Amino acid sequence: METSPRRAWIPAALLVGVLYLLIGRVFVLFANHVHLWRLAAWVASAGAYAAHIGYEHFRLRSPPRRTALHVAVAVAVGGFSLAVAGMIHSLSVSSVIRPAWLLALVLWPTFTAVPAFVGALVAAAILSRLPRSADSRSPRRVREP
Q: What values do phi and psi take at 10, rounded to 5?
């Protein structure tokens, strides 16, 4: 089943959200050189963030606010899934869910999505002001001698 152009952002947001979860969980596995692996996780997450903004802007041609909203949703999905993963890990260690984890299910997505929205809004606004060298909607003009 194909996704309509209006809904094409949903699978992308879910995919990037799962990517944030994978980055957050896989990079934790490497206990050696924690600082280096944490930096690598930040770089990988920044790459996913930038790629998502680029996909929204160049492929879906979303306006800046919509781009920012879709990117923030992906970040919130990643934040929520990391909170769930942390809660499950905590539950496996102590077999009791502390109330702080229930609060984390709300706070982690919020505290990550709000700055992600602002950053994506700024980036998308800058991208929208740049001239497009090869716009696919307009035919190329050929210079005649």
A: -65, -50
Instruction: Report pTM.
Output: 0.82
Q: Higher pLDDT residue, 133 or 126?
A: 126
Between CA 39 and CA 23 the distance in angstroms is 11
Q: What is the DSSP string of the chain?
A: -PPPGGGTHHHHHHHHHHHHHHHHHHTTS--TTHHHHHHHHHHHHHHHHHHHHHIIIIIS---HHHHHHHHHHHHHHHHHHHHHHHHHHHHHHHSS--HHHHHHHHHHHHHHHHHHHHHHHHHHHHHHHSPPSS-TTSPPPPPP-
Question: What percent of the chain has a predicted confidence (pLDDT) above 70?
Answer: 87
Q: How far is CA 45 from the centre of its chain?
A: 8
Half-sphere exposure of 4 (CA within 13 A, CB side): 2
By the 8 A CB rule, do 69 and 13 touch?
no
Convert the pLDDT of each residue in 78-127 to its tens digit.
999 999 998 998 888 887 778 888 899 999 999 999 999 999 999 999 99
Picking from 56, 31, 66, 48, the residue whose alpha carbon sits closest to that of residue 112 is 48
Identify residue 143 by its one-letter amino acid code: R
